[in-house]
Amino acid sequence: MALDAFAPWEDPTAKPLIQFQNVTKRFGDFTAIDNLNVDIFEREFFALLGPSGCGKTTMMRMLAGFETPTEGSILLAGQDIAPVPPNKRAVNMMFQSYALFPHLSIWENIAFGLRRDRMPKDQIAARVEEMLRLTRLDKFARRKPHQISGGQRQRVALARSLAKAPKLLLLDEPLGALDKKLRQETQFELMDIQEKTGTTFVIVTHDQEEAMTVASRVAVMDHGKIIQVATPDVIYEAPNSTYVADFIGEVNLITGKADPKGDVLQMHWAEAQPAIVGAPLEGAQAGQDLHYAIRPEKVSISTEKPVEAANAVQGKVLDIAYLGNISTYHVELAGGQIIKAQAANNRRISRRAFTWEDDVWLSWTATAGVFLER
Amino acid sequence: MRQMSWFNVTSLTLGFVFLYLPMVILIIFSFNESKLVTVWAGFSTKWYGELINNRAFLDAAWVTLKVAFISSTLATVLGTMAAIVMVRAGRFRGRTLFSGMIYAPMVMPEVITGLSLLLLFISLGMDRGVFTIVLAHTTFSMCYVSVVVSSRLVSFDQSLEEAALDLGCTPVEAFRLVTLPIIAPAVISGWLLAFTLSLDDLVIASFTSGPSATTLPMKIWSSVRLGVSPEINALSTIMILVVTIGVVTASLINKRNVVRQRRDEAAAAKSA
Amino acid sequence: MRRLLIAIPYVWLLALFIVPFLIVFKISLSDTAIAIPPYTPTLDISAGLGAIREFFAALDWENYIWLTEDDLYWKAYLSSLKIALISTFLTLLVGYPIAYGMARAPEEWRAMLFIMVILPFWTSFLIRVYAWMGILSQEGYLNQFLLSIGVISEPLVILNTNIAVYIGIVYTYLPFMILPIYAALEKLDISLLEAAEDLGCSRFSAFWLITVPLSKQGIIAGSFLVFIPTIGEFVIPSLLGGSRTLMIGKVLWEEFFSNRDWPVASAVAVVLLLILIIPIVLFQRNEQKQREAGR
Q: Could you give the ipTM of this predicted complex?
């Protein structure tokens, strides 16, 4: 993937396409967006990820022009867009419900926005054909929305919102209504179309897998605030808080007291247990409350004590979740802490080395997990 | 499918006999030869002939249709506006009074509505006739239209309008190009309801009309007060048949559309 | 734009619904006069402030006192309430089994049954009432039929009695009772009844313990839809009722058209409205509750 080359957010001279500057949005007493700042760059595929009610949809609706910020401003290519009504914005939106006009054919749906621009007839026709080809809908042009399947409707909605070649395309849970298999196929299709058209995409989703798959950067949101903005791998490997660590994928969280030792950081977390060793956390003071986050797949499980592991603890297998390709072991440590460890099932299940109630060793390297302050 | 019990079959049969027998009898006796409406004296269509030659009835029918057409059209426009206000306008001053005024005329006894409108027209010194009946009918039937249309608007997916705005429509264009075509069936049923209510109304028309305008129900009323008459039977038969044909046709069209839509959706799901 | 959208229907309803009402109220406080219009005082704004003061001074509650003194009126109100109550109950008795039968009918029949119930609603009210005149009269079809099969030897007197009024109300308002009950019963999940039977209910007790409580909302809505318009009913008591059938709608009509006593007719209307406010508010509250529960 060309992701390594494409990173305008690391270039201090790059001009963002969209800037949220101290944006706050209140509905009565409820604060949907709380003093939010973020820059989104041209050609980015930017994902807003969070649970329902976190404010991600409100952010999108402010970009589309259906809501106006209570405080602060939103700039599109340097221009404040607050006074521009939705029908005058070079921003188009793909709705969660798709919002296809039921009384118009697929062709007319796609042409709808172009007709509003008073574009000449032959140009409209050419553009609609182009969009139909792009989304592989040529065969369905004359049908009405209720005469096509859910996946096709999703592509019509995409084609319609892309037809006007917007500077920015907003996608509100675009794949939420599709079943899992179709969703995965469509994710790659979306990325493909985004690359082909070079449009900036902002996608709202509550599905972390979807955000990780499609986005160049992910913003994890909670209660109207952005908790972390980063590329998918950073979000996963180096979350900045327990909230992000917990929201993305599975994680083991252990709490304890900091104990800096030279170029490593140790954390004491239970009586008579070896301290957890990991990479240092900037500004961590001795005795400070800390969290340690480690992904289950980075924890190894074995019957013998491993020789060279930076971290090794003993426990008892409490539960095994067999998932086919992998198994998750729930291991109870001496202090009652439960750690999940994942192992690939590269042998048949009958030859598994350990089972319920077995004493096992869990181990991981010094860089496998991260220390978090909050 | 569960077998229907004898109890259900009996109650449905008796119920529908009760609902329809009086009208069936009315229709049969409209073809009675005799002037004595309760004694059968052979088949004849002579009462229909007399009806057609009765100028007073024809005039009244014409007035009624005119009033119904104008008032239902006005009521549809006003009622649709009121429905949009109710569903979409959000908060504004006097909203409670507004929704009260929308619902109240439907539960108001006709005698009160009629009396109050008559007193208004008198105190304004207006000549009573077709115009005043139209005003009266528009006022009460617009409330029915607004209820029909607003129940459709409530279930209307507002993101359709937002999509239209997003694609470059002004609010007025969005209404004309997207909202109106989609809610059109509800607007049409609202119009039909208003039309029927106007055709049907006796009490309010009696209060608000003047000597220059007599509607068909008023004419029927003055004639049936004296007792059953074969001419009225013939007229009733015609009215019942027109309504039956209308309602049955409308429901058949509706059913065909629903069936077609289901078939299309099933086919679309399969092709996916 | 938005303002205009609100203003047009608003002004229309104010002018043709609220203002007429205020006029009725004002006239109910005036005195009867042999004049055109047949009441005093009439307001003449051009005569200045003094005239307006005089105008208000001339208004009084005399007509309302009159309503309480002449027992015709309060008897008419009571009799309207009684007739409305009894006929609502009768409509429920007739309508519930029909709604129940519809809801239990095979699904492909239901649309047709539904149309058959609303079809009479679209046909003229007046004609539906009129149809019963020929059936119920002394030499009508019902008496002919009963005499011919020998059930009775003398024709029954039904037309021009309260019985005919009850029959007319049940007949014309039946769809209003059936439809809400049907809507409630159709939503009812059959497996609830099966669960009740599984837990030891008989068919009959399952009906009383499950079906009836779950169709309560429909019963309440239907009853109000019949009860409220029946109180002010005019056509049915006039055509089917006799001279002794007292209903307030008829009294108002006669007071206005026959006696030309506009102030008293107006007072009758105001009191009728006050009586109706209670069931209307209850009905609205019930609908509101149902809407909120539906969410």
A: 0.88
